[in-house]
Automatic annotation (TrEMBL):
Gene3D superfamilies: NAD(P)-binding Rossmann-like Domain (3.40.50.720). Pfam families: adh_short (PF00106). This is NAD(P)-dependent dehydrogenase (Short-subunit alcohol dehydrogenase family). Coiled coil: none annotated.
């Protein structure tokens, strides 16, 4: 490791956007610690000396604590919680079983904030916490409806991220709340607007430009500020 080499922790990197972000930051010369829930052949296949793969489920508090302990000697310029779910996203809120709706909220809103809180002590000065939100989390931009429980979970994430930043304002914390575009992944589907490479290239550029900027910033993969 060189002294100037940046280090990213990418959480939820088994596939999709998380995997693409790992590849992109490695290609840009960063060291990357990437997490999976279970062995990911795609992640293992990257086979870089600059990559460390760890296993954790963000919904599992003891597992997150154990990960924090295993990474005790590590410091990160970027801690990016990418993991998310869209279970029964096409059903209206009243038709989604309560336990499913609750789990979407827990995984997409509560768990990322708990992870950020747990790992804030591992962020270097001038680093950023990034949270994968969505434009669907914008209340103001919701003109089309749909994806109701998913939208609500990402709106909750945005609200919790702002409160997290306010709670840590004296520490000048930098929180990037990011929309990756509508992307062709398992979640985004084949009809989505853009491919993973376009999204993660844009996200990495935005992170590079915004790294360490104090405050909470809701931005898309092109660097555009989104309405709350
Ligand atoms: N694709 C889009 O168009 C789009 C648009 C806006 C926002 N997003 C957001 O971008 C993020 C990534 O989406 P994607 O399109 O890459 O989705 P994806 O292909 O479905 O991948 C989801 C990732 O999240 C991981 N994950 C889910 N629950 C987890 C948990 N409890 N603990 C740890 N990891 C967990 C999955 O791991 P496993 O492999 O173990 O399941 C997988 O790596 C999500 O937060 C999503 O809401 C996506």
């Amino acid at each position: 490791m060189t002294q100037s080499q940046k280090h990213a922790l990418i959480v939820g990197a088994s596939r999709g956007l998380g995997l693409g972000l790992v590849e992109t930051f490695l290609a840009r010369g960063w060291r990357v610690t990437a997490t999976q829930r279970r062995p990911s052949p795609a992640l293992a296949g990257l086979g870089s000396e600059a990559l460390r793969v760890e296993t954790a489920d963000i919904d599992d508090d003891p597992g997150v604590t154990a990960l924090h302990d295993r990474l005790a000697s590590e410091r990160f310029d970027l801690i990016f919680v990418v993991a998310g779910v869209a279970t029964l996203a096409h059903d209206p809120a009243h038709a989604v079983p309560r336990d499913v709706a609750a789990q979407v909220y827990l995984t997409n809103a509560i768990s990322p904030i708990r992870f950020a809180e747990a790992f804030l002590d591992r962020l270097v000065p001038g680093g950023s916490i990034a949270l994968m939100s969505s434009i669907l989390g914008s209340v103001g931009l919701n003109e089309t409806g749909g994806w109701e429980t998913y939208r609500a979970s990402k709106a909750a994430l945005n609200t919790l991220a702002r409160s997290f930043e306010i709670r840590h304002r004296a520490e000048n914390v930098s929180v990037l709340i990011l929309h990756p575009g509508w992307v062709r992944t398992e979640m985004g589907g084949a009809e989505a607007d853009i491919d993973v490479a376009t999204s993660v290239t844009g996200l990495a550029d935005v992170i590079g430009a915004q790294l360490g900027r104090p405050g909470a910033h809701y931005l898309d993969y092109r660097g555009e500020t989104l309405a709350w």
